[in-house]
Design brief:
Blueprint lengths: L1 H6 L11 H21 L10 H11 L8 H18 L5 H8 L15 H23 L11 E4 L18 E4 L3 H21 L9 H7 L5 H11 L6 H13 L9 H15 L4
Antiparallel strand pairs: 1-2
C-alpha cells in the first residue's frame, strides 16, 4: 500500500487511516475470503458446506458492544446484503447436502435463542426426511433395480408357448408391484436415516467422502443419495476456469477441433494438474 501511494504521490492519505478500523475490517473480510476459497474448491464436495458457511458469516457479522460505530454500521450493511443475496439462494439441496455431512447432521450451528429458532430447526429436520425420500424415489431404474421375489404356483398354468410338463410346480419369478416397491423403499430410507443419526463418528469421519465410503454397505440408499448430491459443486468457479482453459485450447488456429477432441484434451490437462500423470 505504501509503495502504491508513494508512486501516486498520495502517501499523505496514510496519515488519515484509522488503524483500529482498518484492522477490524481486515479481520471481517478475511473470513469472507476463507468462505469463498472453501466453496470454490474443486477436489472435494462443497454443496454440503454452503449452509455452514452462511451461518459462520452470520457469526462474524454479529454486532458487539465493543465495536466501533463505523464497524457496527459495516456489519449491519453487509449482513443485510448477505441475507438478501446469499440466504435467498439456499435451496433444499443445500440443506440435504449439509445433512449428509456427518459433522453437520445435527445442525448444532443453527441458533436456538428463540422459540421460532427451535421450531425452524425441528421443521428443517422433518423436511430433510421428506426430501431424502423424494430424491431416492426419483433415482433411475438402473440404480434401483429390485431383486425379484418368488412365489410357488398354486395352480397349473397352461401355456401354448411351452411343453414343460413341470411348469406347474416350478417357482415363478414375480416382480413386485410399483406401490410395494415405493412403500418398501420409503421405509428403508427412513430406517437408514435412523442408523445414520445413531452412527458414532470417528476422527477420520470429518472427511465426508471417507465416511460414506466406510458406511456404504450399511446405508446404501443414503450413500447413493450423497453421491448424487455431493457431485454438485457449490460454486461455478471450477466450471468457469475450465471454460477459460477451453478458450486457450480452441484458438484461432485450432477453431475446427472436434468437440470430443477438445474434451479429451481438457481431461488430460486436468489429470496432469491433479498429478495423475
Amino acid at each position: 500500500m505504501v509503495e502504491v501511494l508513494t508512486n501516486r504521490n498520495r502517501l499523505t492519505l496514510m496519515a488519515e487511516v484509522d488503524i483500529d478500523i482498518n484492522k477490524a475490517v481486515s479481520l471481517i473480510f478475511k473470513q469472507f475470503k476463507l468462505v469463498f476459497e472453501t466453496l470454490e474448491a474443486s477436489k472435494k464436495p462443497t454443496i454440503n458446506l454452503v449452509i455452514p458457511c452462511y451461518y459462520r458469516l452470520q457469526t462474524v457479522l454479529k454486532r458487539d458492544i465493543a465495536d466501533l460505530p463505523a464497524i457496527s454500521l459495516l456489519k449491519t450493511l453487509v449482513k443485510r446484503d448477505l441475507d438478501e443475496k446469499f440466504y435467498t439462494s439456499i435451496k433444499a439441496i443445500h440443506w440435504l447436502g449439509c445433512y449428509l455431512d456427518p459433522s453437520f447432521r445435527s445442525f448444532s450451528f443453527l441458533p436456538t435463542r428463540t422459540t421460532a429458532d427451535v421450531e425452524f430447526k425441528e421443521n428443517i429436520k422433518e423436511d430433510i426426511k421428506k426430501w431424502a425420500v423424494e430424491h431416492v424415489m426419483t433415482q433411475t431404474e438402473e440404480d434401483d433395480t429390485e431383486p425379484p421375489t418368488f412365489r410357488r404356483r398354486v395352480e397349473v398354468l397352461e401355456s401354448a408357448e411351452t411343453n414343460d410338463f413341470l411348469s406347474g410346480i416350478r417357482e415363478e419369478v414375480v416382480y413386485r408391484e410399483n406401490t410395494s416397491i415405493t412403500t418398501d423403499k420409503q421405509d428403508l430410507v427412513l430406517k437408514e436415516i435412523d442408523i445414520y443419526m445413531a452412527t458414532k463418528l470417528a476422527t477420520e469421519d470429518i472427511d465426508v467422502l471417507v465416511f460414506w465410503k466406510k458406511h456404504q454397505d450399511k446405508m446404501p440408499l443414503l450413500t447413493r443419495l450423497f453421491r448424487r448430491i455431493g457431485s454438485s459443486q457449490a460454486s461455478s468457479g471450477q466450471s468457469e476456469r475450465t471454460y477459460s482453459d477451453c478458450g486457450l485450447t480452441v484458438s484461432e488456429r485450432r477453431a475446427n477441433l472436434d468437440p470430443g477432441t477438445v474434451e479429451n484434451i481438457e481431461l488430460i490437462n486436468m489429470a496432469f494438474k491433479a498429478g495423475l500423470y
